């Protein structure tokens, strides 16, 4: 079942939209999936945030060890959450000219590169394994678990973006409905400035920035 011919050059699809890669075979023996929802609380004065609750449902087939799989899912979610909120990589470049020599990695230790701690995980963390999804192509109908749930941590970033949008609605009026840029990771500095309140706008305007409502903090350092 599992086999993918990279050398085969398939003909176009019947619709004419690109090659029909299904003729090459299946690159994976099976697929897994999951869904996650996060609830956050954002301090708009400091940019600090807390994850109040997270609900996850993950497809692991017929789990061989549910307790172990739940632990893997929790760990992967925490990694993904950290990746898109606090784990910021800073290099010596034009925006960080004070870091020398040029090209050096600044955030290379726990003093500068922050990873999630016990205090960062959701206060109410609920993980559910999808039922009735046996996988007949693997051992005992199971599916691998570990890396896939990492992507569910992005739900925290999206929840923070909605929190920022709510804050902007209070300060910008109709302008708050416009698209705004908020890069990942959503550090406290980026969250704070994205709220675009009077204090944030005053700081941006003091530095001769044209449009305070679209200001994007480049980094935390």
**Weakly predicted, low-confidence segments:** none
Structural class: alpha+beta
Overall shape: globular
State the order of secondary-structure elements, H for helix, E for strand.
EEEEHEHHH
Report the helical percentage: 10-25%
Strand order of the largest sheet: 3-4-5
Main sheet specs: 3 strands, mixed
Through-space gap between termini: 50 Å
Task: Please indicate the percent range of residues in DSSP E strands (runs of 2 or more).
Answer: 5-15%
Question: What is the overall number of helices?
Answer: 4
The average pLDDT is 90
Number of strands: 5
The Cα radius of gyration reads: 22 Å
Question: What keywords describe this structure?
Answer:
alpha+beta, globular, 221 residues, three-stranded mixed beta sheet, 4 helices
Q: What is the topology?
A:
Layout: E1 3-4, E2 25-26, E3 34-42, E4 49-58, H1 66-83, E5 124-129, H2 154-172, H3 188-194, H4 198-206
Parallel strand pairs: 4-5
Antiparallel strand pairs: 1-2, 3-4
């Amino acid at each position: 079942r599992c086999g993918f011919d990279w050398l085969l050059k398939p003909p176009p699809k019947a619709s004419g939209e690109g090659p029909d890669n299904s003729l090459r075979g299946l690159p994976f023996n099976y697929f897994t999936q999951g869904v996650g929802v996060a609830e956050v609380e954002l301090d708009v004065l400091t940019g600090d945030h807390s994850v109040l609750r997270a609900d996850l449902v993950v497809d692991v087939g017929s789990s061989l060890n549910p307790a172990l799989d739940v632990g893997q899912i929790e760990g992967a979610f925490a990694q993904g959450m950290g990746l898109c909120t606090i784990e910021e990589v800073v290099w010596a470049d034009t925006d960080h000219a004070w870091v020398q020599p040029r090209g050096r990695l600044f955030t290379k230790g726990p003093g500068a590169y922050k990873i999630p701690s016990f205090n960062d995980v959701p206060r109410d963390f609920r993980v559910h394994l999808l039922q009735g999804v046996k996988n007949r192509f693997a051992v005992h109908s199971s599916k691998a678990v570990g890396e896939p749930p990492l992507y569910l941590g992005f739900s925290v970033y999206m929840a923070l973006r909605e929190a920022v949008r709510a804050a902007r609605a209070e300060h910008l009026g109709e302008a708050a409905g416009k698209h705004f840029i908020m890069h990942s990771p959503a550090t406290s500095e980026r969250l704070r400035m994205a709220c675009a309140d009077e204090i944030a706008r005053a700081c941006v305007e003091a530095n001769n920035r044209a449009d305070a409502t679209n200001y994007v903090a480049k980094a935390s350092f």
